[in-house]
Amino acid sequence: MNSTQHTGRGAGGEWLRGQIAAERRELAEVFAGLTAEQWNSPSLCEGWRVREVVAHLGTGFRYSTARTLWELARSGGRVHRMADRIARRDAAARTRPELAAALAEHADHPWRPPVGGPIAALAHDAVHGLDVTVALGLPPRLPLPRADALLGAVSPRSLRFFGARLDGVRLRATDTGWSYGAGPARVEGIAEHLLLVAYGRRLPAGLLTGAGAERFTRGG
Question: Where are the alpha helices (DSSP H) in the chain?
Answer without folding.
Answer: 13-32, 36-39, 50-57, 59-62, 65-74, 79-93, 96-105, 117-133, 144-152, 156-161, 191-198
